[in-house]
Amino acid sequence: MSKCKILWYVLGMYIKVRVVAGAKKEIVIKRTEDHFDIAVKEKAERNMANRKVAELIAEEFNVPFGKVRITSGHKSPGKIISIDI
How far apart are CA 50 and CA 19, in angstroms? Predict the structure, then answer.
């Protein structure tokens, strides 16, 4: 394993998120340590739902918004999000 990968595992983490956009209520359900189900009021237009998901994850892990990044799944309900700790 390269030094870069070892450093990444120490300084950050990946989580899996299942998103429902356009819901009536905002809900964050923690299924396991690295799996969340999230419902947001924002529609899946102009990246509004993705931004809100990133804000909720940052709030959940008590990190700044800039430390949260959607790694894959920008246009799908299943997303992988990386968090720099």
Answer: 9
Q: Predicted confidence band at 8 (pLDDT cuts at 50, 70, 90)?
A: very low
Closest by CA to 19, choosing from 80, 82, 59, 77, is: 77
In angstroms, the CA 35 to CA 43 distance is 22
CA 80 to chain centre: 6
Report how far Cα 28 is from the mean position of its chain's Cα atoms. 11
| CB-based contacts of 74, cutoff 8 Å, min separation 6 | 47, 50
Neighbours of 54 (CB within 10 A): 21
SS3 47: coil
The alpha carbon of 59 is separated from its chain's Cα centroid by a whole number of angstroms, namely 11
**H helix runs in 1-85, sequence order:** 3-11, 48-61
Average pLDDT along the chain: 88
